[in-house]
Specification:
It is built from 5 helices and 2 strands. 42% of the residues lie in helices and 9% in strands. The chain is mainly α.
């Protein structure tokens, strides 16, 4: 499957987010996973990526009656990072980067190509470089 990149561009308030939401609503069944990243700032992107990891953990936990969070952590590149309830904390920038790298690893895993990743509110291209945080070439985009 080819990776397709689509950019919705326009002035604020014209409905780009609403159009993306409608697409996700209509086509979510075409994807194994749909993730939404608030790209308004570097910090909101980091928070969104942390939420993606939380979604991945919850997904894997639902696959079993008694989730083995140690195993789930290993599967998701978060070995020794999850507690007995599947939670993790991010207190240092190195821990933040570890979560970002683990999400990137999941996105680039072999045969894992049916996901949709929406970057919303990427309005200010001057305040930070999205590639510093989420290098799109890493994913072949």
């Amino acid at each position: 499957m080819d990776i397709i990149q689509v950019v919705l561009y326009g002035m604020g308030g014209v409905g780009k987010t609403q159009l993306a939401l409608e697409y996700v609503y209509r086509h979510s069944g075409d994807y194994s996973s749909v993730f939404w990243i608030n790209a308004a700032s570097e910090q909101t992107m980091k928070i969104s990526i942390t939420h993606i990891m939380q979604q991945l953990i919850k997904h894997h936990a639902k696959l079993s009656d008694k989730p083995d969070y140690k195993h789930i952590g290993q599967l998701l590149g978060m070995a020794c990072k999850l507690d007995s309830t599947g939670l993790f904390t991010v207190q240092q920038s190195s821990e933040e980067q570890h979560v970002i790298n683990a999400v990137k690893e999941w996105l680039t895993a072999k045969d894992n190509t049916k996901w949709l990743l929406v970057f919303d509110n990427l309005d200010d291209l001057e305040s930070f470089d999205i590639n510093d945080l989420f290098h799109l070439h890493f994913m072949g985009l």
